[in-house]
Amino acid sequence: MNSANDVLKRVLDILSGDLTTTAIDTWFDDIKAIEFKDSRLVICSPSAFKKEVIETKFLSHLKNALVELFAGEVDLLILGEGEVAAFLGQENGRNKSAFTEEREALTFDRFIVGSNNKFAHATARAVAETPATAYNPLFIYGNSGLGKTHLLYAIRHAIKDQFPEMNIVYVKGDGFTNELIHAIKTNKNEEFRAKYRSADVLLVDDIQFIRGKDQTQEEFFHTFNALYEGGCQIVLTSDRPPKEIDRLEDRLKSRFEWGITADVGPPDYETRTAIIQSKALELGVALPTDVTTYIAESVTANIRQLEGAVKKLTAYRELLDADVDRDVANRAIKDILRDEFLPTPELIIQETARYFMLSTEDIRGRSRIKDTATARQVSMYLIRKLTDLSLADIGKEYKGKSGGGMDHTSVLNSIRKIETEIREHPAFRDTIQDIQTNITDTSGQS
Question: Angle at CA 342, nearest 5°, toward 340 and 348?
Answer without folding.
Answer: 110
